[in-house]
Design a protein that fits this description.
This protein has helices at 63-67, 78-84, 89-95, 114-124, 137-150, 153-167, 177-188, 192-205, 219-248, 256-269, 288-297, 314-330; strands spanning 7-8, 15-20, 72-76, 105-110. By secondary structure, it is mainly α. It has two domains: 7-217, no CATH class; 221-330, no CATH class. Strands 1-3-2-4 form a four-stranded mixed beta sheet. Helix 5 packs antiparallel against helix 6 (153-167) and helix 9 (219-248) packs antiparallel against helix 10 (256-269). The radius of gyration is 27 Å and the shape is rod-shaped. The structure holds zinc ion.
């Protein structure tokens, strides 16, 4: 018996790979910053014997349509799969050793993009002419999910470098879904320098907890981001509170008028950031970059008669610790 498949990656292959639910929602962004369940890991071998559980989807209306998308099958070589995969020998061993009644080994995965899977299977079967040299960030992120799962990092390295390079100029400058996708692809494809850049951007420009889009981004990265924002927030709040105390007890500023002006401007200027309000979480809803810029832009009222050589501003009295905060954010280690 020669099962009919959708894609003949290797016509002499001994394995049928089945992709179920190929149009599953991918890396959904939630405006309210709520987290949701991570995607299930695809089963490692053997076809599923009963229906898979429904994926977690927020929009109830779309569930039925998504579930009806037919599965897609690929004829592949279990040997190529094992050679390309960095997974343990034990796991690789299972892939080629459970023959079904049709004489083929079976492996089942779910929720992936069918074109991304086709691309990866073409690469590991050395069908390089079938592989595009440039892909979108969306596609690259989907490819990364498959590479991460099978541990195909080394097998796709030549392509992943080309893909990443063609997209480098599109790295976003502010926090959002695309920036999280960049964190994901930089992590999977081991682009350490670019990863540090996008992590710094995320810390500087996010306005609260950072989403993982349900991607298996390692905890040490998401923790690093959260810690960095918490520490930087603490540094800013401490610095501003020290300045306020210094102005009140005459250790900052140069004369009475100066201290009154700076103190008033500081309290008034930082009002909506809740820096001096113990009943609110400081800086929540504000990015570090915007906060720092805002502090530098606080204006201090002067009139002609006040001016007696005093050139103090909120910015001049905060610049040294603000620079330290920025430099600490850049060193994401
Ligand atoms: Zn002064």
């Amino acid at each position: 018996m020669y099962p009919v498949v959708d894609h003949e990656i290797d016509p002499a292959g001994d394995m049928i790979l089945t992709l179920t639910n190929p149009s599953a929602p991918f890396a959904e962004w939630h405006d309210d910053n709520t987290t949701h369940a991570p995607p299930k890991n695809p089963s490692s071998h053997e076809p599923p014997t009963e229906p898979e559980p429904e994926p977690v989807i927020d929009e109830e209306a779309e569930v039925d349509e998504e579930a009806e998308v037919p599965a897609i099958t690929y004829r592949i070589s279990s040997r190529q799969l094992s050679l390309a995969s960095g997974r343990s020998k034990k796991m690789r061993h299972q892939w080629g050793h459970h023959k079904g009644p049709d004489g083929y080994s079976h492996i089942s995965v779910e929720d992936w993009d069918s074109d991304a899977l086709l691309t990866i299977l073409n690469i590991i079967h050395l069908r390089n002419k079938q592989v595009s040299r440039s892909v979108s960030l969306e596609m690259l992120s989907q490819l990364a999910v498959i590479v991460d799962y099978f541990e195909f990092h080394e097998a796709v390295e030549m392509f992943s470098k080309v893909w990443m390079e063609s997209l480098q100029r599109t790295i976003p400058k502010s926090y959002g879904r695309d920036l999280i996708l960049w964190i994901w692809v930089c992590h999977v494809f081991n682009m350490e320098k670019a990863l540090q850049t996008v992590l710094s951007t995320a810390v500087q420009t996010c306005q609260g907890p950072i989403q993982d889009l349900g991607l298996p981004i390692p905890e040490h990265i998401t923790n690093q981001l959260a810690n960095k924002r918490t520490i930087a927030t603490g540094q800013i709040v401490d610095g501003l509170r020290r300045l306020r105390e210094g102005l009140q007890n005459d250790t900052q500023g140069c004369n009475y008028n100066c201290r009154c002006r700076i103190l008033g401007a500081l309290i008034k200027g930082m009002d909506r950031f809740h820096v001096f309000d113990p009943t609110h979480q400081p800086l929540l809803g504000h990015s570090l970059a915007d906060t720092i810029q805002h502090i530098r832009n606080i204006t201090v009222p002067y009139d002609y008669y006040d001016y007696r050589g005093c050139r103090c501003t909120v910015s001049s009295l905060t610049e040294s610790f603000l620079r330290q905060v920025e430099s600490d954010i850049m060193e994401l280690k």
